[in-house]
Design brief:
elongated, five-stranded mixed beta barrel, alpha+beta, about 375 residues, six-stranded antiparallel beta barrel, 4 helices
């Protein structure tokens, strides 16, 4: 009994441990409360305003539109054929760039050169005969005043002289035709371009009209579009349209509209002008064409739209209350038809409101901003 009493810890030691754990718990709670309620000192620096570029929402006429597929083509894409027959001696390589007038291919012109020599010899013979007849006519004319026989002979000689002169003209024409054939035996580029296909090889015999190469100009390009017949009521030559591929989007103009639709497909052809740069002949593009009457709508630059998490919004810049700073407010919008580099939107915006077009991806709702460039211009 006395042994059990001696092994029990003293009461003072138990109390000391309980007080220790209670004090530790109070300190921990105090630290949490301080961390939650702590505020920075009054002199702490605020984050710098975000730099943005802005533009203005504006009312303008906007037409409903549709996007239709198109293809980039060259306005000068030719299959160059031979104008004379003969054996090919040389043909330009695929990928070779040629200037207008440079030789694409040339044929063996040996037979034509021989024909030219024969034509020239015939011309000289006729010229000699003509000179003799001219002198003969002059001699007989002197006798014709006194001799009736000489008059009859004079008429005969004058007729022969005229006939020989015409034969000489015909011989010169044959010679010129031979020279023209010699010139055509050298097939020349009708415009600047690149050889994209070689259909015949050196050593082959070709006839007149056989295609030798395909030559394509790389600078004079446009978009060929097959569009529904209904767009012809709202699209004219000179109308502004948008063209885009996976990486480039530009505003351009309709160059030609063929106002005749196919009775099967109910489509008609539209040609849209395009500047060289970033486009590949043969690539697929999409073209925005008007497909309804124009109406006044509020528009913003396309670059002002931000799409994130299936939401579409813009940032509207306005002055902060009781401050000289500007803040950006996020405004949810829905997009409508396009108008060049602008697009119609529905949302809490008014004509003349300032919207962010550069730097909006990094903004938060209510964040202060600094406008580094106002009156943003499309494609600037």
């Amino acid at each position: 009994m006395n042994l059990r009493i001696m092994l029990r810890p003293p009461a003072s030691l138990v109390l000391t441990r309980s007080a220790f754990f209670t004090a530790a718990f109070i300190v921990l709670v105090f630290a949490v409360v301080v961390s939650i309620t702590y505020t920075p000192a009054a002199g702490a620096q605020e984050p710098a305003p975000a730099a943005v570029e802005t533009s203005t929402a504006r009312l303008q006429a906007v037409s409903p539109s549709i996007w239709v597929p198109g293809t980039v083509i060259s306005r000068r894409d030719s299959r160059i054929a031979a104008e004379v027959s003969g054996k090919l001696l040389a043909v330009a390589e695929v990928g070779q760039r040629l200037k207008q007038g440079e030789i694409i291919a040339h044929l063996n012109d040996r037979a034509l050169q021989l024909q030219k020599r024969d034509d020239e010899a015939n011309i000289k013979r006729l010229q000699s005969n003509l000179r003799f007849l001219v002198k003969q006519v002059e001699r007989v004319q002197k006798l014709a005043h006194t001799n009736n026989t000489a008059k009859s002979e004079l008429d005969q000689l004058q007729m022969e002289r005229e006939m020989l002169a015409q034969q000489l003209v015909a011989a010169e024409v044959r010679r010129d035709r031979t020279l023209y054939d010699i010139e055509r035996s050298h097939i020349r580029a009708p415009f600047d371009g690149v050889v994209v296909e070689r259909l015949l090889q050196p050593g082959e015999y070709i006839d007149t009209g056989d295609v030798v190469v395909r030559l394509v100009n790389l600078d004079d390009i446009e978009v060929k579009v097959q569009a529904p017949v209904s767009v012809s009521r709202f699209v004219d030559e000179g109308s502004v349209v948008n063209v885009k591929n996976d990486s480039v989007s530009v505003a351009t103009r309709v160059r030609r509209l063929v106002p005749v639709g196919d009775e099967r497909s109910r489509m008609l052809e539209v040609r849209v002008g395009l500047e060289r740069g970033g486009w590949v002949i043969g690539e697929a593009v999409r073209v925005e064409l008007a497909n309804g009457a124009a109406a006044k709508r509020l528009t913003v630059p396309r670059d002002a739209l931000i799409l994130r998490d299936r939401e579409m919004y813009v940032y509207k810049v306005s002055a902060a209350e009781n401050s000289e700073q500007s803040i950006a407010r996020r405004i949810a919008v829905t997009a409508g038809a396009g108008a060049g580099d602008y697009i119609a939107v529905n949302g809490d915006l008014r004509d003349g409101d300032t919207v962010v077009v550069r730097g909006g991806e990094r903004l938060r709702d209510g964040q202060t901003v600094e406008v580094v460039k106002a009156d943003w211009v499309a494609n600037s």
